[in-house]
Each structure stands twice: as structure tokens, then as C-alpha cells.
Amino acid sequence: MMNADLGKDFSYSDYYRALFDNPKKNSVLMLDENGIILDVNRAFQLSFGYDMADLIGQNFSILFTEEDRQRELPMREVRTVLDETQSYDNNYLVNKNGVLTWVSGESVLLNSANGRKCILKIIQNIHTQKESEQSIVRLNSFNENILASIDDAVLVLDPDLNVVKANRSFVKLFNLTESFLHTFDFREFLKRFDGNGGLHAAIQSAFGPDGCAAPQELEFEDSYARLRSFEVSCGRLDGNAGQTHALLIFHDVTTKKDQERQRDDILNFVAHELRNPLTNIMLNIGWMEAQIQESSTEGFADFIDRTKRNAERLKKLVNELYKSTKLISGNYDLQTETFDLDEFVDDCMNTMRMAYPEFAIERKGMAQTALTADRDKLLQVLTNYLTNAIKYSDGNTHIDVGVVVREGWATVSVADGGKGIPANELPYIFNRFYRAEKTRNLEGLGIGLFLSRQIVEVHKGRTWVESTEGKGS
């Protein structure tokens, strides 16, 4: 508060003159009620490059950009001051050389003793501050664009494990919306999927002095109930004002894990299925070597025959593995031709009847149409179906082959009255190497139906199964 006695020694004109003439940072303009410049202080001239002659008598709108003049900002500011005795503005000011400077201004209405009105406008240069603000906005926008473009799911957590930010991939992974993103309970997520506590420990390490931790592997279902595998990396993210967050990147390794599982499956099946014929071959060879040393050939023919059968069995298993691998790699060219579908089905049925005369393989329905496809590959499919029906017949020797053509689609089916397939195993029987629990004592790799599905899908068709356990498939 100003001392009352001190204030008596100075007039208001002294205050005004001191504020007008002496500041070096605060620029001052004096305008009449029409916006005409009456006076300008030295600080304004030094800040924006104008001389007194450039400004006195000019409308202060010359200091505004063309865009602001078109929006009538200068006169709106004058009217506001006249109506409300003051106003505030925040916009570009045009320097004499045309350069734009962002300024903040405050205008107040003055009334002279003789009733004349004028406007005192005090201006501050905030260009550096504004540029910094815009730079931060641009940086944030740039960061947001980077986050949006990353295919991996990205999540930012505060020390209380609340979601601070998540990119579009994370939102899509859990079928969230931006408005409900912050309701995502990450602690509940950890309870469900971080059984060994590894990810939680990694997050705590990210907030620690090292600021990083070893990647963790998680498996969980996405919003479409598909089982996905992720490698989750954790790191510390230091922000402004000492704020610390944890940055989590969920890298999808589902395909990699599937390939590893397929490789392990192949190795396990090779070890299991090829071991028996190889053992038999080696035993027969060992026996024949012993017989040769004893100069005896008795029983050679029988052992040679057994060796040949096991070698053929081995060759068949290797061929199935090769075909399976070739299909997975996509290197599977179709050799198409046009042929009669009914003749094709009959040829396959007759071949199977000759190989298995004890089975009654009957046909139901006629196609009466030609088909353009890879005949040999489709023959392999139908043979696989019939072989399965015979293999799992469980003593029921009647098999039906159905043919129906409807709305441009040819449906060929094989029906048996054998073991049938349990309902819980139906979704998996076309998977590579899959063997139903009750059929694992039977010979085979579990590749036939997998190959059949791949061949049909390459032809743009589809395969499916209908079965009742104990009544057939």
C-alpha cells in the first residue's frame, strides 16, 4: 500500500509519465476512441522497429495481421474497452519489417478532466513463451502420431498402475474405447494373466534406479477370444516436474510361438512315429548279418520282406511330413484340369473297394457336372476320408459316399458308423498332428485330415465334420 504522505508529493501525471517513458519491456500505445494512435513509448519502437512517424495518426489496425483485420479484431477490441472500460487480447503483432510477434495486451479506458476519452494499451512480447507452448503441442502431437503408427500395443502406467496413456493397438487388442480406456483395471489384468508375478516385478523394476527389466512372456485371449502370445518390455519414462511412468510394449509373438510349437510337434512325432520302423529295420539287418556270419540263409526272405515293409512305412511317413511342410510354406501349385465329378468319385470308390473288399462302400446321389480342379489332389482328399472311415470303423463295414450339387457348390461327403468323435475333440481334428484320444493306438501321424483341409481351402472350398460318439462320423 502506498504511503499517503508520499503520494501527495507526486501527481497522477508523474505516475503516467514514468510508466510510459521508462519501461524497456512493456510497450505502450495511446489511442483515441476510434483506434487512432496518439502516442507510443520508446519500448514499443525498440521492440517492433517502428518510428513515431510510422504510427502517429494511423489506425492501430496496421499492427494486426490481414486475417485479424478481416475478422474485425481491432475495432471489436476498441468497442469492448469503450463498453466495459478494459479488454485483454492475445494475438500476432506485425513488426515494421513484416515479421510476426506473438503478444499479450491489456487495454484500459481513460477519461480526461474535459471529458475526452482515450485508450491506454500495454503490450508484452510473449513470442518465446508461445513458441515453446506450440513446440510442446507439436511434440505431443508428434508423439501421439508415433504411438498411433506402432503396431505393438503400448501402455503407459503411473506408479499406482493406473493407465495414463495407451495407443490405438492396445485399445483394439482389448476392444476398448477411448472414453472407457481409463477404466481398464491393469491390476486385475495382472491377477488374471501374470501368474508368476514376473510382469509385476518388471514394472516395479522400471520405477527403480535401473529403469528397465528383462522382457516377460504372457499368454492371454484378445477381444476376439483368440489365444495370443506377447513379449512385454518394460522401461521407465521420465516426464516433466519429476513425474515417472512405466512404459510397456506388448510385442505380438503368437506366430513365432506357433511355429516353435509346430517345430516341437514335428520333432516329437518324428521321434515317436519313425522310431518303430527304424528299430525293426535295424533288428532285421542285425539278424541277417548274424546269419551271414553263420553261412545260413534260412529265413532271409521273411526278414527281407519285413525290412521292405518297414522301409515303405518309413517312406510313407516321411512323404506325409514333406507334404505337410510344403503346404504350410505355401509352395503348393495346383495342376488343374476339367473332369467329370461322378467318374472321379466312382474311380476313387472302386480303388478303395479293391483294397478293402470286406467293406461295403455305397454311393448316394449324382453330380452330373464337370469340375475344374487338381484331380490328383482332390483324389488324395477323398481317399483320406475313406481311409479314415475304414480305419475308425470299429467293426461296422458300411460306408456311404454322398454327392450333392446345389447353388454352384459340389458337396462330397463320406459317412461311417464307427467310433465317432467326442464333441470336445471335433474343433481340432483338422489340426496338424492331432490324434483323437481313442485312436492313438492306430497307425498314422495325424496329418491326413490336415492335408485334406489345406488342399480343399487352396481350391477355395471348405471342410467340416459332423459326428456322434459311438455312432459314426
Distance between the ends = 99 Å
Gyration radius (Cα, Å) is: 43 Å
Biggest sheet descriptor = 5 strands, antiparallel
**Which term fits the overall shape?**
elongated
- Count of individual helical segments: 16
Secondary structure elements and pairings:
Layout (H helix, E strand, L loop, with lengths): L3 H5 L3 H10 L5 E6 L4 E4 L1 H7 L3 H4 L10 H5 L2 H12 L1 E9 L5 E12 L5 E9 L1 H23 L3 E5 L5 E4 L1 H6 L12 H8 L4 H10 L8 E6 L5 E12 L5 E9 L1 H20 L1 H19 L6 H29 L8 E4 H15 L4 E5 L5 E4 L1 H17 L6 E9 L2 E8 L31 H11 L15
Index terms:
473 residues, alpha+beta, five-stranded antiparallel sheet, 16 helices
Describe this structure in words.
With 473 residues, the protein is α+β, with helices and mostly antiparallel strands. Helices cover 42% and strands 22% of the residues. The strands form 4 sheets. The chain has a 5-stranded antiparallel β-sheet, sandwiched between helices. It has a 5-stranded antiparallel β-sheet with strand order 7-6-10-9-8. A hairpin with a 5-residue loop joins strand 9 and strand 10. Helix 13 crosses helix 16, helix 14 crosses helix 15 and helix 15 packs antiparallel against helix 16.
